[in-house]
Design goal:
Blueprint (H helix, E strand, L loop, with lengths): L1 E2 L7 H6 L7 E4 L3 H13 L4 E4 L2 H10 L4 E4 L8 H10 L4 E6 L4 H10 L3 E4 L4 H17 L10 H11 L4 H4 L1
Parallel strand pairs: 2-3, 2-4, 4-5, 5-6
Antiparallel strand pairs: 1-3
Helix pairs in contact: 3-7, 4-5
Amino acid sequence: MRDGVDGGRNEQASERVGGAISDIAIIDDDRALLEVTLLAVREAGFSAVGFHEPLEALMWASDADPTCIVADLKMPGVEGLDLVAAFCALNRHAVIIVSAFVDVRTTVDAMRLGVDDVLPKPATVDDLVRALRRGAEALAATPAREELTFTRRERQVAEMLVEGLTTKQIA
């Protein structure tokens, strides 16, 4: 379910980070932590929406304007790196992982997928805001692309990944 629909956009903050970005998406299965993170990000001047359902966040991201996505790595029913790979495959969002289950191998694998930043959970507000600003600056430096959305097959694959199937099972 999507939380915090309107989030309080702050255009001045968007200009400070190198250009306007749309709502930042925060994905976490822990509802209390999701609400605290949304509040912190909004107080830092960003507009944010929250999701505790990974598939809903993925479908939202497939249609959203370029933005930053902050995702927990371990969520029930979803292999975290598969979800992150789906976000990175959209090739138009800055993806930041915040997880208590981060080690060197996971960080390297995530970076190879295209993740912009990996933060240990609990991340400080300052660390998260710095990561969001770096992500927004990277997006501002990236040339705009024309309409990028999932094809029907890509959506099917994404849904199967979120359901927990491996790439071998999907193929």
